[in-house]
């Protein structure tokens, strides 16, 4: 008998056909919460899940006695109770690498857009306000040659740094990561404490995963340490930055601008001041959102799930210990 899987992410026809070859699939189009009664009921017989952007609370695992693997269509895994999954012996797979360059492109787009005021000034033209040559009140600041500070210096952080150092002659600093001698050699990157990095950088780019230890890592104190001319970019997860403190810092001109792809609550409410501030470029969580990359992520998740449910090691695994204990068993 085929194993049963629940699919709640965007998968192509070919990917669904590939899964249907192996499994019995139940699809949940537009699922926004794991508390959806039909989804909860289906968990009782599910061996695998494939999807993204839906938080899976630890309590639900008790209702999923046959669950063997979850294939998330994302690299970040803050939506999953990793410890509980590991205790239940459930493999958690993610999609690193295939989205690194695309997400770094988004980060760099935010760096350029905020520094050169691209969105604000494009709106100025669209409104018909461009009636005479622009003056200093519309000038931006340079990106090339400036100091770029990466908070977290993993795959995506390094890819942003590579763009900055090799494309724009930027000085790269990094914090909140183990020493990276190869990248130091390649990019001239220098490791700093977080406080040093915040004080030195013209652009502070947050690429660190969200976890209990990184929640509100960038708060009021950290924002105060930044230069008043500096720009904060967040392409990691919203709650790594204290959004209330960020809004205050932007309103009071304690930092120049922010380029944001992620927020405390998504979709971002129109009641938030952020989308209305001229010194904020707010994107709708598009870090990896290109046709090519979303397709590659979905394919990686499909491959991970097929491998996991057929007793093979998935390509990308978050809780390696589950695989190790299965092999040892
Ligand atoms: P990664 O390769 O694992 O890099 C994470 C970096 O953060 C590493 O340098 C790591 O240090 C450092 N770090 C410091 N404290 C950490 C902690 N408590 N837990 C984990 N890492 C810690 O991850 P990545 O592929 O670059 O992705 C980073 C994050 O970007 C993801 O977790 C995700 O949330 C976010 N993301 C967002 C989008 C978007 O759409 N905006 C798209 C993709 C990813 P070491 O170097 O010492 O390991």
Automatic annotation (TrEMBL):
PROSITE patterns: D_2_HYDROXYACID_DH_3 (PS00671). Residues 108-287 form the D-isomer specific 2-hydroxyacid dehydrogenase NAD-binding domain. The keyword Disulfide bond does not apply. One of its GO terms (cellular component) is cytosol. Residues 6-319 form the D-isomer specific 2-hydroxyacid dehydrogenase catalytic domain. GO terms for molecular function: glyoxylate reductase (NADPH) activity; hydroxypyruvate reductase [NAD(P)H] activity; NAD binding. It holds the Pfam family 2-Hacid_dh_C. Keywords: NAD, Oxidoreductase. PANTHER family: 2-HYDROXYACID DEHYDROGENASE-RELATED, GLYOXYLATE_HYDROXYPYRUVATE REDUCTASE B. Belongs to the D-isomer specific 2-hydroxyacid dehydrogenase family. This is D-glycerate dehydrogenase. It comes from Vreelandella sedimenti.
